[in-house]
């Protein structure tokens, strides 16, 4: 028996497709970074592509858990190649902010419908989006430092190496303690 509304089922399916699209964005930008001799940034972006696919799968499983029907649909084409690393990171941040707004729609509808199961499920994504926006903002800060100091090319080289082993998770306010 289905335990989500038709409207929620539709919204969750659209979000599943949206997460798959997010993965395409990271895939395309990762390939662009690799082609432009930034292997560390490419590794970081490919790693995040995997995270987005996990998000997609998490939503797929949730729809099935609630007795809904999964609809796997066509993806939009990935965006055009960025013009440089700064442009690449800004586009990624915009995609994440837009994705957060879509997650908010799920949580808002769940609240309006008193669908507390989906409301609870949505909270995981709310937290994940806080982390992702924080993570990308942090990478942008590092890029700005690396690209504005004297000897910019050398610093970009270090920035690229640094990102190859960078975590895919950010520490957010929820994780902080004063111990
Ligand atoms: Fe799954 Fe980066 O949003």
Automatic annotation (TrEMBL):
Keyword terms, alphabetized: Cytoplasm, Iron, Iron storage, Kinase, Metal-binding, Oxidoreductase, Transferase
InterPro entries: Ferritin, Ferritin-like, Ferritin-like_diiron, Ferritin-like_SF, Ferritin_DPS_dom, Ferritin_prok
UniProt main location, coarse: cytoplasm
Location within or outside the cell: Cytoplasm
Domain of life: Bacteria
Reaction catalysis annotation: 4 Fe(2+) + O2 + 6 H2O = 4 iron(III) oxide-hydroxide + 12 H(+)
Residues annotated as domain Ferritin-like diiron: 2-147
UniProt record, GO biological process: intracellular iron ion homeostasis; iron ion transport
Enzyme class, first EC level, given as a word: oxidoreductase
Residues binding Fe cation: 19, 52, 55, 96, 129
Gene Ontology CC terms, in alphabetical order: cytoplasm
Gene3D superfamilies tied to this protein: 1.20.1260.10
Keyword Oxidoreductase attributed: yes
Pfam families: Ferritin
Enzyme Commission code(s) on record: 1.16.3.2
GO terms of molecular function: ferric iron binding; ferrous iron binding; kinase activity; oxidoreductase activity
Family, per entry: Belongs to the ferritin family. Prokaryotic subfamily.
Known role: Iron-storage protein.
Protein's recorded name: Ferritin
Naturally occurring in which organism (per UniProt): Pelobium manganitolerans
